[in-house]
Structure formats: C-alpha cells, structure tokens
Design a protein that fits this description.
Elements: H1 7-18, E1 26-31, E2 37-39, H2 46-49, E3 56-62, H3 75-91, H4 98-113, H5 137-149, H6 156-168, E4 178-181, E5 187-193, E6 196-201, E7 204-210, E8 214-220, E9 223-230, E10 234-241, H7 245-263, E11 273-274, E12 284-285, H8 292-300, E13 337-343, E14 347-354, H9 376-382, H10 408-417, H11 424-430, H12 435-438, E15 442-446, H13 455-491, H14 497-503, H15 506-536
Parallel strand pairs: 13-15
Antiparallel strand pairs: 1-2, 1-3, 3-15, 4-5, 5-6, 6-7, 8-9, 9-10, 11-12, 13-14
Length: about 525
C-alpha cells in the first residue's frame, strides 16, 4: 500500500475481493492505541489516519444498517449484513425478548447446519453453539424446538432472509453504542440507527428521536449536544458527556454521517459541518459518500449473475486463554473470514479465505464461558444481556473491535507473571491476538514510514497552530473592515462632533488630499471608461 494511498483505494480493493457491489453500507473500522474506535475516512491517506506502528489491524463492518435489509438487491450483501447482525446478537447489542432470541438463534442454526437430523443432532445439540453472551437451558430447548418443528426445508438464503426480517423489527436493530453519561451522571448509551437517534439506559430505550427532528449536533471537549425540534415548535437540547474528547468527536462524526446518509435525498445536499458556531474554532467534517436513497436507486440497476457465496461449514471451536475467564471459547460467531494482507515490499501478498461458523461449545468447555469464581468485574461482564429483562451493557462485551497487538503481549504477560489482576478493558485489548479476533475478518496493511515521534502530541500541536492561525486571520480581516468603515464615515457628509474633530486634524487633511482624493479620482476615471466601453459595444 503506497504511503499516499487513500482509504477509498483500500476499501475498493476489499470490496472487489468480496465481489461486493452494494458497498455503501459498509466501512472499515480500526482502534487507535488509546482504544478509541474510528471509521477509516476514504478521502484521507490511510497512513496519516493511523497512530500505531504497522502492521495495522482493521475490521470490515456494517457502517450504515439498511432500513430494510430484506430489500437488498444481492444475496452476497444480505449475507454480509446477516453476519454483522449475528455478531451484534452475540455481543448483546441486539436486545430482544426470550421468544425472539430463540427464533433468531434457530434461524442461524438452520442456515448453518440445515434441517434437523436425529442421526446427526443428538439431544441437547443446540447447547453446543454460542449465539448469545449468556445461555440458559430453557432457551436452548426452545431454540432446538423451533429448529426441529418450524424451519424444516428452509435453505440457508431463506433462513438468513427471515433472520434479517425479524432483526429489523427490534428496537435495537442497527445500534452501535457509544458509552456516555447524562447531566445527572447516570450511565447511558447513545446510538444512531436507520430511523433516528437512540438513548439507552439500563435495558430501556429512554429517547428515540427521528432524523427529521434532529436540527443540529455539536460537541465541545467531552460534551455532546443534540438539538431537537419537535411538533408545535418545541425545541429541546439533549446534553451528554463522553469519556474523552476523542470519544466525543467520534460520536459527533458518526452522528453527522448517519444523519446525512438516512435523511438527505441526494449527496449534493451534503454540507461541511462545524462543531462550533465560530468558523475559526472547533472541528469541521463532511460526509463524503452517497445517501441511502441514491444507494437504493443504484442497487436497482444492478444486472449480473449472482456471485457465488461460500457459506461457512461447521468447524470445532478453538479455545484460547483469557485473562478473566481462564480457558474459554472463541468469543465471536465463527463467521466466514476474508483477510487481506498488503505489503509495500511484496505488493499484493495474498488474498485468502477461511470459513468459520458459530462456535461449538465442547463438553470440556461447556461451562468455561461462565467461569466460576471470578471477580466482581468479571461478573459484570456476565450481565451483558440478550434478553430484555436483563441489564444492557455493551461496554462489557467480550468481543470488541480488536486493536493492533504490538506491545500488548509483553504487557499482558508481565501482568500475568506478576499475578496482578487485569481489567476487562485489558482483556478487550488482548482480543486482537486471539483466534476470536482472527475469525472476524481482520484486515492488515503494511505501510512504510507510518511511525514518528509523538504522533498524538504532534496532532495536538497542529490543531493548536491551525486554531491560532485562523484567529489571527479573522482579527486582521476585522481590523481591515473597521478601517474601511471609518474612512467611509469620515469622508461622508455625516456631521457629528466626533467626525468633525477627526477631519480637523493635520493627519486627516494630509491623508484626504494626498491619498483619498487621488484614489477617488482614479476609481471614477476607470468607472467612466468602463461605462463608455459598454455603451460603445
């Protein structure tokens, strides 16, 4: 990958490899060394967006969830969205009732292993699969019952389509949670969905605001503001506090992109948005892609033979050590992986596939996921809910977007060697080096010269200098305008004591006769010449 290669080049390369045409719903996500998530911006250089040393770890994700996923034109697109929502279900991001959870899991089971066969599927076979962060025997029996009696004969494509139709009806469909706190200090999760802005607290949706009611979004430091205009000219300002300024900026950029994608009629209506009312202060951002309506119109024009889809076959899961859980399962549904390795020295090194399915829970590790005798922090991760009557805490998800694993192994090994307890956040960071992270479609790009001393500090210095430069230019511009206004007023017939005193000073008289009068005669002469030229023509 060339040093100046834009994000669009990398994304197009990946979509070409996946044989994907309806690509506007997807994006590439990465995590910086401070564990802050980012979406790769396609208009900027890939290398300049990275703060870590190469190789970089990136993930192919659904960025804009389709309003109606069942209406997608191509089966390959529906399959990729299906994989993403299956991952959301496993994370505990897709909240639902027990009955809905059982149905969704049964659809996954039917799509991956086909019809129920007593010879192949003994009693309790559904318990061998990991669909949610937390299982119960009652739920597993319900899943097996639906799979046996209601889904027989459905092809994988039909099961995936039914799965999408059901998932689309849930309140938390398309939720990508951003942890924040409200003005009272209560924990909350903000999210942008195809239908609007959502605020979740506990297991409840406390706010839902349609996109046409959102008038403005801005942020200052860690504070995020959402301006809402509802019926009867009722205006509301919702205020939330992000953990860091970087997290708040990421939240703001996600909001700007989602509002543009779902609300606007065409991409020509997209405007550059500032995070501040003063143009020389704050951040400026512009969504660079197509909007949902244009994507749907473009999809309708696709005419080609449906590409072949290599769905995953069932494979045994590989257990791996975990800091807080001990030996346990791979944390992700073992979906089909597309890993792209790109090297500047060797060109396109390889494009390879490997198929993985929903992880199998072996007898020896059947209870390892729960992990007896864990600390209170580990117990909090167990409360990640798929069922709506439990606590909603996607921040405790066992499978975040992985970060690059440089220096992590040494840090984690040293912590373990010293017997020091490690937090869930550290476990999240270590997930990049596990088979679980490998199974979720990571993308590594080896780029030269990406390093540098203190990139974060350099970025802050650049922002400060740019802000100072803007302030200086605005100040000079205002002084120039004020000077012109003063000259016009003093040369006018306005008769006030202030202007009379100025006109009587020797400096003003010298300026008036030596500079202003000759300049006025010169402009008048030029103006007459232009008028005469127009009259003659």
């Amino acid at each position: 990958l060339q040093r100046d290669a834009k994000g669009q080049y990398l994304f197009d390369l990946l979509c070409h490899h996946l044989n994907l045409l309806e690509k506007d719903y997807f994006g590439i996500r990465f995590v910086d060394p401070d564990k802050q998530r980012h979406w790769l911006e396609f208009t900027k250089s890939v290398v300049k967006q990275m703060r870590a040393q190469p190789p970089f770890t990136m993930c192919f994700r659904v960025k804009f969830y389709p309003t109606d996923p069942a209406a997608l034109k191509e089966e390959i697109t529906r399959y990729l969205v299906f994989l993403q929502i299956k991952r959301d279900l496993y994370h505990g991001r897709l909240l639902c009732k027990t009955s809905d959870a059982a149905l969704l899991a049964a659809y996954i089971l039917q799509a991956e292993i086909g019809d129920y066969d007593p010879g192949k599927h003994p009693e309790g076979y559904s318990s061998k699969f990991q669909f949610f962060p937390k299982h119960s025997e009652k739920l597993e029996r319900k899943i097996a019952e639906i799979h046996k009696s209601e889904l027989s004969g459905q092809t994988p494509a039909t099961s995936e389509l039914n799965f999408l139709r059901k998932a689309q009806t849930l309140e938390t469909y398309g939720v990508d949670p951003h942890p924040c706190k409200d003005v009272s200090g209560n924990a909350a999760f903000l999210a942008f969905t195809p239908f609007g802005f959502v605020v979740l607290q506990g297991n409840k949706r406390v706010h839902f605001i349609k996109w046409n009611e959102v008038t403005k979004m801005k942020f200052e430091g860690k504070t995020f503001y959402l301006y809402v205009s509802q019926k009867e000219e009722k205006k509301i300002v919702l205020t939330y506090f992000a953990p860091t300024p970087e997290a708040c900026k990421h939240l703001w950029k996600c909001g700007i992109e989602n509002q543009a994608f779902y609300k606007l009629e065409k991409s020509s209506q997209v405007r550059t948005v500032s995070s501040s009312n003063l143009f020389f202060k704050g951040s400026r951002f512009r969504y660079s892609g197509r909007v949902a309506k244009e994507v749907m119109e473009s999809s309708a024009k696709i005419k080609r033979e449906p590409p072949e889809i290599h769905r995953a076959g069932l494979v045994p899961s590989r257990s791996c050590p975990s800091i807080t859980h001990g030996p346990r399962l791979s944390s992700v549904p073992r979906t089909r992986r597309r890993a792209v390795h790109i090297s500047i020295m060797e060109g396109l090194e390889s494009l390879r596939d490997s198929a993985h399915s929903t992880p199998v829970r072996s007898a020896s590790h059947g209870d390892a996921f729960a992990g007896p005798g864990r600390s209170g922090r580990a117990e909090s991760s167990e409360r990640v809910a798929v069922i709506a009557d439990e606590s909603y805490s996607p921040a405790d998800s066992v499978l975040p977007t992985p970060v690059a694993e440089h220096s992590l192994e040494l840090m984690l090994l040293s912590r373990q060697a010293n017997g020091a307890p490690c937090s869930i956040e550290e476990e999240k960071e270590s997930e990049a080096g596990t088979p679980a992270a490998e199974a979720e479609g990571e993308l590594r790009a080896l780029c030269p010269g990406a390093g540098g001393l203190g990139p974060a500090q350099a970025q802050q210095v650049n922002k400060f200098l740019l802000s100072v430069l803007r302030l200086l230019l605005v100040t000079v511009g205002l002084l120039f305008v004020l000077l012109l206004l003063l000259i016009v007023l003093t040369e006018s017939d306005l008769d006030t004591a202030f202007f009379r005193d100025i006109r009587q000073t020797p400096e003003f008289e010298q300026f008036h006769y030596q500079y202003f009068c000759p300049l006025r005669r010169w402009f008048a002469c030029k103006l007459r010449a232009v008028v005469n030229l127009l009259i003659d023509t």
